[in-house]
Design goal:
The protein has one domain. It is elongated. The chain has 119 residues and is mainly alpha-helical. α1 packs antiparallel against α4. The protein is built from 4 helices and no strands.
């Protein structure tokens, strides 16, 4: 999430192929890390018999949030091409704050075995 903040803030400044390619590589790595982290978290939190349902909710929420982001960023781009990138940086800041606030709670819950998979 922190990497996303910097990546989105740097995108409006990208003015050549190498810079854009590096930022796209960062995008791929951050998406991959977020996806793998989400799946790993679900595997520890959701009971095995509900695993497919949990992953289905994850995929659906990703799709809904992507569609919502595109719907918002289109009009922002018309105002100024940098605005959508700043909005995404803001969303990454919200995600970073949310993760920081939830981390102690979820770490305690997972280590206590309260959220360990059960049949």
């Amino acid at each position: 999430a922190v990497g996303g903040i910097f990546r989105w803030l740097l995108f409006p400044l990208a003015d050549n192929f190498v810079t854009m390619a590096a930022l796209q590589l960062m995008h791929g790595l951050s998406f991959g890390a977020a996806h793998l982290g989400s799946v790993a978290f679900l595997s520890r939190l959701v009971p095995p018999k509900w695993g497919a349902t949990g992953q289905g909710f994850l995929a659906a929420s990703n799709g809904i949030l992507t569609a919502l982001g595109l719907a918002i960023c289109g009009p922002l781009f018309e105002l100024d091409p940098a605005y959508p990138f700043w909005a995404m940086a803001g969303m990454s800041m919200v995600a970073t704050l949310g993760l920081a606030l939830l981390h102690p709670f979820m770490a305690k819950k997972l280590s206590a075995g309260e959220a360990s998979p059960a049949d």
